[in-house]
Fold this sequence. Notes:
The complex is a heterodimer of chains A (166) and B (244).
Chain A (H helix, E strand, L loop, with lengths): L1 H12 L15 E3 L4 E3 L4 E2 L4 E6 L2 E6 L1 H7 L2 E5 L6 E2 L4 E7 L2 E6 L4 E6 L2 H4 L3 H4 L8 E5 L11 H13 L2
Chain B lengths: L1 H9 L2 E10 L2 H16 L5 E7 L3 E4 L12 H6 L3 E4 L7 E3 L3 E7 L2 H4 L3 H18 L5 E2 L7 E3 L2 E11 L2 E9 L19 E2 L2 H4 L7 H16 L5 E7 L2 E5 L3
Parallel strand pairs in B: 1-2, 1-12, 3-4, 9-11
Antiparallel strand pairs in B: 2-6, 3-5, 6-10, 7-8, 8-9, 9-10, 12-13
Amino acid sequence: MALRMWASSTANALKLSSSASKSHLLPAFSISRCFSSVLEGLKYATSHEWVKHDGSVATIGITDHAQDHLGEVVFVELPEEKSAVSKEKNFGAVESVKATSEILSPISGEVIEVNTKLTDSPGLINSSPYEDGWMIKVKPSNPAELETLMGPKEYTKFCEEEDAAH
Amino acid sequence: MIMDDLQKMRSPRTLEVWKLGTVNYLKSLKLEDKLVSDRKANRIPDTLLSLQHPPTYTLGKRRTDHNLLIPEAELKGLGAELHYTQRGGDITFHGPHHAILYPIISLRSIGIGARNYVETLERSMIEFASVYRVKARAGHKGETGVWVGDRKIGAIGVRISSGITSHGLAFNIDPDLKYFEHIVPCGIADKEVTSLRRETDTMLLHSEEMMMLCGRKILHSFWTTRRRSIKTNSPSGLTRFNPV
């Protein structure tokens, strides 16, 4: 339900029409170099996590760019509800191609919900990084931290520069 | 802005290679943790550890100990240790004549992710095997590693923490393959494990030289188009050489 509302508010922001039955999100623009999508309305960390701040809840996941660079995710380790997360500190890990990669929290707060679907379906992170592949929901302890994150345009540029260094 | 970018791309990248000989597994884990922390703080350059372990079984983050086929007490009877780690991948064995390379490098500073990094490690082992006329290939989907036909010759298990790598690869030069009978190696049943000794008639160099050659292939794979300087730490002191 929340996603559908988010989708239509995103669509409104982009001056596009949306029907109530559609729940897929529309990418704001693509990074044509690596075909990753970046969405409007989200904030981004340099470690490639995204945050969607909605009132007193912040949803966190990893970006399309991140999942593409990881490869197929086969295992996800997430924190427990009520545990604390801190900005730029690791809260979990994903395993792909025999590599475990730590996931860093873009903000500090308390974990209020964890996406348990990822235990049986870790591949959701690859197929739906911004929707079904969300990882944790957090009650932010310091909303000012959101201001230090990048917006979509900044993040797109950041990805391009990072890939260009290769 | 453009000049700055060009400067960044042209400036030489240093890789420090540490030749450590045989190292107890826990000691090497402690060393890796320290080096990861130092690399993250930019106190050290990218570093490559080249070593062997005494007989050691290790498990990855998923703790797949159902792939250990004998009780831990029996392992000790064989003179082997068992360790649980934070790396990716399943159960494996390391022992003498098993070349281990642990690159402690900043993936962020070269702008690649886990998938590209692991593919580079695979390619390096394939190139190394080809020096001995052994035709190796990367694994099929879900079987990361290096294979000769259906026999596994090289394994990968990596940890990436704040963009810094640790653990790495293990290549079977001439280990005692009997140790692999007590596990389902890498969680893949019905597939054999092999070694360079088994696959080639070419005379093999001393282990140390083999491992350095393997290390060079990794450097070559990572940095073929850029100027690189590499320093080696060995008992006789620092040696500087150019990557092949």
